[in-house]
Amino acid sequence: MNAFRGKVAVHAITWGDNHLQALEDASRLGYRAIEPWPSFALQYEQNVTQFKELLAQHHLELSGLYGGVVGDSRFADSSKRREIVDYNERLARLLVQCGANHLVLGPGGPRHKPTSLEELKVAAVTIAETAQRTLELGVKACLHPHLWTEVQDENELDAIMELCNSDAVFLAPDTAQLTGAGMNPAEIIRRYKDRVAYVHLKDMTKDGAVAEDFPMLAGKEVPVFCELGLGKIEFDPIIEALNDMGYEGWLTVEIDQSTHTPYRSLEICREFVEQRLQIQVRK
Asked: Which residue, 7, 43, 199, 275, has most beta carbons within 10 Å?
């Protein structure tokens, strides 16, 4: 097997709002942990014991939650700062009660233009305050650069990381989001090796792909992302970078839109991770 020392989880985004099916399928596929939709997790905010029991019934741990901005807000909008901080504190409290300690900070969109340095400075204040609050609860807040948002490009990522305290603001790289923004995921991981705390493992559809390549998808729109191993991302250098830094955290498999069925998509991903990357998924 690969020298990878971390653990593999799965993201529930593929199932949309079919939350219970996501738990059932993830369990049947042998994944040991899941990152569910935050809206689903917050349904149990007043009864976390029930949520923990639901996860336990499916033999799943909670790997993390996707937080960050609320609705259509932005980190760069200082008027939304209190709302953003409070929202992520709620998620952090739920995480702690479930024995998890990673919160993904998703930036705001849609993106209409590059984010200016002045806007990034405002965003950094909100991110730093959010991260400090969650860290006090025992949760690492991890910035998640994302296509079509206020933190998409490499200069925006670098600015936020430089402006924020390295002891409080961590990084959750997404292999496809970084690739789509013109970055090299392995290089970013090495650059921020002391701050990488959570990872989304995702592939990106090959250049030149056409709708006919995805016969199970309705419509003529080619998906941006695809199952692991079917796209254009080279994963070996990424895993090597994680191994070199001694990464022991979660590697969360994610595909936004299934090109088959959710179950089959995550089965394809599991097979790629176990057979091609030689990383154990199932216990």
From this structure: 199
